[in-house]
């Protein structure tokens, strides 16, 4: 008989979509950890378009997330600021994806086991 164990992820995110209208350039995403150990998180922003019906994510400097890396203490929450820093006025709609990745804990690495981490992909839309 093979033994196994699993640690359920405890990374939660709210809201799951950002729609910013009328020149609003900033918002926040709330992250929290309901687990019993700290969780390391990386946050990245990509320009999101559709090409031939498929999602395309391209690196961008027009929108930033701060902080880009954080450690969530058990039972605590952090706010991530999402800011459109581009100087060019919005014409129509701009779409982005905020990727929030749980980073694996290297101390929990065990030979013969696969660590599965969570990725939240949050749509972000700026409209005039």
UniProtKB/TrEMBL annotation:
Any Pfam family: PapD_N
Domain Pili assembly chaperone N-terminal: 11-124
Source domain of life: Bacteria
SUPFAM superfamilies with a match to the protein in the record: PapD-like
InterPro entries xref list: Ig-like_fold (IPR013783), PapD-like_sf (IPR008962), Periplasmic_pilus_chap (IPR050643), Pili_assmbl_chaperone_N (IPR016147)
UniProt-recorded name of the protein: Fimbrial chaperone protein
Lineage: Bacteria, Pseudomonadati, Pseudomonadota, Alphaproteobacteria, Hyphomicrobiales
């Amino acid at each position: 008989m093979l033994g196994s164990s699993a640690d359920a992820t405890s990374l939660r995110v709210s809201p799951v979509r950002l729609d910013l209208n009328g020149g609003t350039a900033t918002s926040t995403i709330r992250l929290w950890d309901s687990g019993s150990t700290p969780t390391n998180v990386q946050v990245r922003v990509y320009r999101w378009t559709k090409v031939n019906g498929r999602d395309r994510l391209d690196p961008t400097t027009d929108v930033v997330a701060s902080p880009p890396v954080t450690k969530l203490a058990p039972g605590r929450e952090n706010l991530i600021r999402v800011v459109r820093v581009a100087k060019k006025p919005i014409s129509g709609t701009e779409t982005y994806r905020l990727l929030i990745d749980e980073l694996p804990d290297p101390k929990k690495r065990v030979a013969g086991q696969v660590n599965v981490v969570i990725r939240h992909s949050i749509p972000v839309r700026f409209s005039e």
